[in-house]
Write a structure and sequence with these properties.
Keywords: Antiport, Ion transport, Membrane, Potassium, Potassium transport, Sodium, Sodium transport, Transmembrane, Transmembrane helix, Transport. This is Sodium/calcium exchanger membrane region domain-containing protein. Its main location: membrane. The protein has 579 residues and is mainly alpha-helical. Among the domains are: 81 residues, no CATH class; 285 residues, Up-down Bundle (A middle domain of Talin 1). 67% of the residues lie in helices and 2% in strands. It has 19 helices and 4 strands. A hairpin with a 5-residue loop joins strand 1 and strand 2. The longest helix has 37 residues.
C-alpha cells in the first residue's frame, strides 16, 4: 500500500488488487515504497512554512508549493506520474495546462510550449477585442440611451471601457485561490509602464514642438493618483482589508470624478458666457451632445475588427492585403463565433438576426453553465440553474425571433438589448481574464517563476499595449490630442488602481466568511509603488519647470527609471530589500 501525503493534509491511498502491498516491495523505478513514503513525509515537513520561517512569505502561486517540484519529480517515473499522484496541482481554469504539457504532449513538449504560447496571445487578443468590439459598443449605446452628458460619460463609463481588460483581470485574480498577488502586480506593473514608458514615448515624440498641456488638470491628476497610491500603501502595510475599507478606497475615484465633472461644467459655462458676449447669436455653436465614438475604445482600438472591416478605404487596398485580411478572418472565426452567439449586438453595421436570436437563447445557458462550475454549488442547485437557464433561453429566443427584422436592429426594447450585451460582455471578460490568470500561474509552475513576476511583466505589458499605441498616435496629432493623451496616461492607471483593485478587494472581502480579505504578503509591491511614485514626482517637477511642455528630459528620465525598475525586479535584487 502506497500512502501519499499532500501539503493540504489530504490522504490518498493507492491499494493494489493483489498482494503487492508488502513494505519491502520495489517500484518500477527501483525505489522502495517505504522510501517513497519517507520522501513524501520529508517533503511535507520541509515544504510546510512554519510560523517562524518566511521562506515563502512572498509566494503568490495559487498552486500548492509542492507542485513546483513537478520538474524534478523525485520519487516518480516522470512529470506526468507526479501530477497524477498530486491532483491538487490541477489548474483552476477550463483547461489543465500543466497536465497538457507533461502528459498529453509526451515527448513533443516543444509543441506543447508552442500551443500554450499561441493560446496566451489569443487570450490577450480576446480580452482586448471583447473590450473594443463588444463592451465599448454597449457602453457607447448605453450612454446615448441614458442621455448622459459627455462629462459624466467621460469620467464614469469611458475609463471603464478602456480599462476593462485590467479591471477584470484583477477581479479574476482576486477571486481566485491565492492569486491576489498576480492582480496587484498586474495593475501596478501596468501603471508603472504607462506612467513611465508611455508618457516617456509621448514626450519624446512631441519634444521640440512647443506644445503645452493644462497645468491644473495635470497637477490634479497627479495629486489624486498620489493619494490613491498612499492609501493602497496603507492597506498593504496593514495586510488585510474589509469591505468598508475597500469601498472607501473606491470612493476616492468618485471624489476625483466629481472634481473633473465640476471643473468641466464650470469651464463650459464660462466659455458659453464669453461666446454670448463676444459673438452674435447665430455664431454660437452647440456643445457636442456626446463623446466622439473613437474615444470609447481608444486604448483597445488595436484589437478592433469592425473599424477596419467597414473602412471606406478598403476598395483601395491591395489584393495581397485583402488576402491576408480574409485569412485572418478565417483564423479568427473560432474565437469570434462563440461570442457572437452569446453577446447581443444592436449596431447597424454588425446587425444579424440569426446571431441576435441565438444570443438571446444561448446567453442564459452560458450563465447556467458558469453557475454550475462553482465549487460550492450542490448538484440539486446545478439542476435548478440549468432548468432556469433553458426556460429563459427558450423564452428570450422566441421573443427575439418574433420581434426582430432581418435588415435592421430592433427599435423597441432597445435598452434590454443593450443591457444584455453589457452583461454578457462582462461575463466573457471574466471568463477570459480568469483563464489568462490561470495560464500565467501554470507558466509560473512550469518555468519555476513566481506568477506575480509574470503579472508584473507579461500581463501588464499585454494590457498596456493599447495605451502605448493609442496615446502616442494621439500625441502626434498635437493640440488638444496631446492633452487627451497625457490625461489618459494618468487617469487610466488611476482608474485601474482605484476601481480595478478597489472592486477586486470589495469582491474578495465580500466572498470571505469573515468579510476580510488577506492581502498577499509580497514585499516587492512596496518597491513597485516606490518607483511609481518616483515617476509621478519626476513628471511633477520637470513639466512645470519647462512651462508644461513635454521634452527629452522628461521622456528619457521616465524610460530610464522604468528600465532600472524592471532590472531590479527581474534580477532578484528585491530579495535584499524585502529581507
Amino acid at each position: 500500500m502506497v500512502i501519499l501525503l499532500s501539503n493540504r493534509g489530504g490522504l490518498i491511498a493507492n491499494i493494489p488488487d493483489s498482494g503487492s502491498w508488502e513494505l519491502g516491495a520495489i517500484s518500477s523505478n527501483g525505489v522502495s515504497r517505504v522510501e517513497l513514503v519517507r520522501r513524501q513525509m520529508t517533503e511535507l515537513y520541509a515544504n510546510s512554512p512554519s510560523p517562524s520561517s518566511g521562506n515563502w512569505t512572498h509566494d503568490t502561486n495559487s498552486l500548492p508549493h509542492e507542485c513546483r517540484d513537478v520538474i524534478d519529480h523525485k520519487g516518480y517515473a516522470n512529470q506526468c506520474a507526479f501530477l497524477k499522484a498530486n491532483p491538487q496541482c490541477f489548474s483552476d481554469g477550463f483547461f489543465d495546462y500543466v497536465h497538457f504539457l507533461y502528459c498529453d504532449c509526451g515527448n513533443f513538449r516543444w509543441l506543447g510550449f508552442l500551443v500554450l504560447g499561441i493560446w496566451l496571445a489569443a487570450l490577450f487578443y480576446l480580452l482586448g477585442n471583447t473590450a473594443a468590439d463588444y463592451f465599448c459598443r454597449s457602453l457607447e449605446k448605453l450612454s446615448s440611451l441614458l442621455k448622459l452628458p459627455p462629462t459624466v460619460a467621460g469620467v464614469a463609463l469611458l475609463p471603464l471601457g478602456n480599462g476593462a481588460p485590467d479591471v477584470f483581470a484583477s477581479i479574476a485574480a482576486f477571486l481566485g485561490e491565492n492569486q491576489g498577488g498576480v492582480g496587484l502586480n498586474s495593475v501596478l506593473g501596468g501603471a508603472v509602464f504607462v506612467t513611465s514608458v508611455v508618457v516617456g514615448a509621448v514626450s519624446l515624440c512631441v519634444a521640440g514642438k512647443e506644445v503645452q498641456i493644462d497645468r491644473r488638470c495635470f497637477v490634479r491628476d497627479i495629486c489624486f493618483f498620489l493619494v490613491a497610491l498612499f492609501s493602497l500603501l496603507t492597506i498593504l502595510m496593514v495586510g488585510r482589508v474589509t469591505v468598508t475599507a475597500a469601498i472607501a478606497f473606491v470612493f476616492i475615484y468618485v471624489v476625483y470624478a466629481f472634481f473633473v465633472a465640476a471643473n468641466e461644467l464650470l469651464r463650459k459655462h464660462a466659455q458659453s458666457s464669453l461666446l454670448e458676449v463676444d459673438t452674435e447669436r447665430n455664431a454660437i455653436h452647440d456643445l457636442p451632445p456626446s463623446l466622439p465614438s473613437w474615444m470609447w475604445a481608444s486604448n483597445v482600438a488595436i484589437f478592433s475588427n469592425y473599424s477596419s472591416k467597414y473602412n471606406s478605404m478598403d476598395e483601395e487596398r491591395s489584393p495581397c492585403s485583402l488576402s491576408y485580411s480574409r485569412l485572418f478572418s478565417i483564423m479568427e472565426m473560432p474565437l469570434t463565433i462563440p461570442r457572437r452567439l452569446t453577446i447581443p449586438l444592436v449596431d447597424d453595421e454588425t446587425w444579424s438576426k440569426p446571431y441576435a436570436v441565438s444570443s438571446a437563447a444561448l446567453a442564459p445557458l452560458l450563465m447556467a453553465y458558469l453557475w454550475s462550475t462553482q465549487v460550492d454549488i450542490s448538484p440539486s442547485s446545478k439542476i435548478v440553474g440549468y432548468i432556469i437557464g433553458i426556460s429563459l433561453g427558450c423564452t428570450f429566443g422566441i421573443l427575439a425571433y418574433q420581434q426582430t427584422l432581418p435588415d435592421r436592429p430592433p427599435r423597441t426594447f432597445i435598452l434590454a438589448w443593450v443591457l444584455g450585451g453589457f452583461v454578457m460582455s462582462i461575463v466573457w471578460f471574466y471568463m477570459i481574464a480568469n483563464e489568462l490568470v490561470s495560464l500565467l500561474v501554470a507558466f509560473g509552475t512550469i518555468l519555476r517563476i513566481n506568477p506575480s513576476i509574470l503579472g508584473l511583466t507579461v500581463l501588464a505589458w499585454g494590457n498596456s499595449m493599447g495605451d502605448l499605441v493609442s496615446n502616442v498616435a494621439l500625441a502626434m496629432n498635437g493640440g488638444d490630442s496631446l492633452q487627451i493623451a497625457m490625461s489618459g496616461c494618468y487617469a487610466g492607471p488611476m482608474f485601474n488602481t482605484l476601481i480595478g483593485l478597489g472592486a477586486s478587494m470589495v469582491l474578495g472581502a465580500w466572498s470571505r466568511s469573515n468579510g476580510t480579505y488577506e492581502i498577499p504578503h509580497d514585499g516587492t509591491l512596496f518597491l513597485t509603488i516606490g518607483f511609481l511614485v518616483s515617476g509621478l514626482l519626476w513628471a511633477l517637477v520637470v513639466l512645470p519647470r519647462n512651462d508644461m511642455r513635454p521634452n527629452m528630459t522628461l521622456g528619457f528620465g521616465l524610460i530610464v527609471m522604468y528600465l532600472v525598475f524592471l532590472t531590479v525586479r527581474l534580477t532578484g535584487v528585491t530579495s535584499f530589500v524585502v529581507t
